[in-house]
Amino acid sequence: MLIQIFEYNGSALVAMVGKNCFAIASDRRLGVQLQTIATDFQRISKIHDRLFLGLSGLATDAQTLYQRLVFRHKLYQLREERDMKPETFANLVSAILYEKRFGPYFCQPVIAGLGDDDKPFICTMDSIGAKELAKDFVVAGTASESLYGACESMFKEDMEPEELFETVSQALLSSVDRDCLSGWGGHVYVVTPTEVKERLLKGRMD
Amino acid sequence: MSNSVIEVPPKGGFSFDLCKRNEMLAKKGVNPPSFRKTGTTIVGLVFQDGVILGADTRATEGPIVCDKNCEKIHYMAPNIYCCGAGTAADTEAVTDMVSSQLQLHRYHTGRESRVVTALTLLKRHLFNYQGYVSAALVLGGVDVTGPHLHTIYPHGSTDTLPFATMGSGSLAAMAVFESKYKEGLTRNEGIELVTEAICSGIFNDLGSGSNVDVCVITKGGKEYLRNHLQPNPRTYTNSKGYSFPKKTEVLLTKIIPLKEKVEIIEGGDAMEE
After folding, report:
1. Across the interface, which of B14, B30, B89 has its CB nearest the CB of A3?
2. CA–CA separation, B171 and B167 (whole Å)
3. What is d(CA B129, CA B118) in angstroms, rounded to the nearest whole number?
4. Hey, which of A50, A187, B80, B228 would disulfide with A114, CB 3.0 to 4.6 Å?
5. Which range, of A164-168, B8-12, B49-53, B114-118, averages the lowest pLDDT?
6. Distance (Å, rounded) from C-alpha B190 to C-alpha B192?
7. With an 8 Å Cβ cutoff, is A119 touching chain B?
8. A199 at the B interface (CB within 8 A)?
9. B57 is catalytic
10. How far apart are CA B255 and CA B241, in angstroms?
11. Which residues make Cβ contacts (< 8 Å) with residue B268, sequence separation at least 6?
12. Which residues are the signal sequence here (chain B) (predicted)?
């Protein structure tokens, strides 16, 4: 049976910029085509206190890629004695993905972090590392088409953390409700210069 | 434990580790993913004082617009710029790589880079990969020998032209150039012609859209007019925006404070030696 490799596991990821803060959110389903095998799958991982990485697409490639990136970041920390800036990390991910240009990882990363002066940075890439730096929002995953539409209409400039959380959650939940392969709740991280708020959302469990 | 070599950070170039696995998946009927392309209309023309490059700003992933305002005019050297069409990762990677090589060459020779140098570096790389690195480029710049404009195709062939267009919108843009181009254009005439050609691509080609970027390169320097024209503004947004009176239901909240509050004790006891 012909299958699309990006639709094997199903995923939905979105990152949005607010005023001196950012939010990164994902769904929680892990499936094997149409069968759900986990409803608490972690798609977003912390690289350091102010940098988060979400990986959509094939879950096995996402895990391998995450392990390689953590390894590279730890080496960087040892050599430079500091954390990587989000822009630098985005370049690293892009290089690692492009290295496999003719036999790629089937993943689409979403990178979100606070740079210098607490300026939020978000970025996504296709599976071979073509960076897309957006000033408002980035999306990835099987629900990406719905997410584009939802974010495009719900996004506002300079939202405060609470309003940003509400907007991201509404955009995520409404988009995954229209996608069979993602859903089963949401996982949202809202990061400001002083704290990280991690929240689990109640969504439709179908 | 398999007898594979420990993975050290590679020295550069492509790695074909996952090819065998991906081929096996393809045999089982798994379709390979589509990469982000830049649909695109890119143009260049030579005017009396130098070269003008133009590009649209839409990036597509299949039929979806994934970036409404991307940058397709890439920096190569202070006097050389390159527009890229085709697979986005390839155009970015190849222009970045040749830009670094040009910088090293400048350090080595102590001279300003020449456009033919960039041209040769690009065409050698693209030919080497037999068209699999899918980058179609319009390279333009002004060096000691004068203004130059070249097109480079994914298989490595090049053309040297007074005006050129590439990308899915190339026919729409070329129609404008063929009817209105003449030698010895002034700066403003040139910018207007380039803008008109890109607009023709934006409005008639589905793979191109959004805004017009223009880059003017002369002997004196360069002028990068990012979003020179924005003929597609968003006019439908509601000024009030969305408001959500009913809050999202939250199951669990975890707050991790980032900056730890450290108390500074003034005039404390000195440490014992």
Report:
1. B30
2. 9
3. 17
4. A50
5. B8-12
6. 5
7. no
8. yes
9. no
10. 28
11. none
12. none
